[in-house]
Amino acid sequence: MYCINCGIELSQGQAICPICKTKVSHPDFPADQSLATYPARPFQSEEYNRRGLLFVLTVIWALLTILPVMLEWMLFRGIGWSGYVTGGMALAYLLFFLPAWFKNPNPVIFVPSDFAGVGLYLLYVNWAVNGNWFLSFALPVIAFLALIVTAICALLRYLRWGRLYIIGGGLIALGLFSVYLEFFVYYTFEAISFVFWSLFPLVAFVLLGMMLIIVAIVKPFKESLRKYFYM
């Protein structure tokens, strides 16, 4: 016999699970005392195991992050290519591993942090190559995109209604972002003229966004979408 909540093996006729205290049988039934009440091995929660695994992965990742800089410094007494590798490894940890430490990571906090990490990495690259494109291109582009994505995440997280409006508006904003991006490419890198490639994603995102908004307004469309996609 097993507990229906945590899955631990129980003694025959046991009334309450000794781990999670879930009622598993009628309390008037006598419990068999011949078998052990608790499992033979100590119980470890999934959260404990997950954090232990994350700790081991973090130590390994930290060693792999520092190793390129140490090797290049020992061989050439300087930092060149290893800076890109170390920065990329640190950025990857920020993007993929750091949120895993939290049971329910809040995207409203982590999304701006991720964009800030990307910005710092690009700032280092700009400094390493003696470029002059960070302030005129990378910073405004990253800031605007971070604002759009963070706003979408915040609205989806804290509003219980209007998800189709939010997603539709977000798609339209991303379409406008493509024009914004092309302008800064033209302004920073002194292109001869606009290529107007941004019109294609602009039209596509605007049409998709308007379609979702129309679906949200027209109730039969909305009900059909909810029926087929469980939204």
Structural class: mainly alpha
Distance between the termini: 38 Å
- Unreliable runs, pLDDT <50, ≥5 residues? none
Share of helix among residues?
A: 55-70%
Topology, number of strands? 0
**C-alpha Rg (nearest Å):** 27 Å
Q: Return the string of H and E elements.
A: HHHHHHH
How is the main sheet built? none
Instruction: State mean pLDDT (0 to 100 scale).
Output: 84
Label the overall shape: flat
Our estimate of the beta-strand percent is under 5%
How large is the count of helical segments?
7
Q: How would you characterize this protein structure?
A:
This protein has 231 residues and is mainly α. 66% of the residues lie in helices and 0% in strands. The chain is built from 7 helices and no strands.
Compact description:
By secondary structure, the protein is mainly alpha-helical. It has helices at residues 46-76, 81-97, 107-128, 134-158, 163-189, 199-217, 219-229.
Topology diagram in text:
Blueprint: H1 46-76, H2 81-97, H3 107-128, H4 134-158, H5 163-189, H6 199-217, H7 219-229
Helix pairs in contact: 1-2, 2-3, 3-4, 4-5, 5-6, 6-7
Features:
mainly alpha; 7 helices; 0% strand; 66% helix; 231 residues
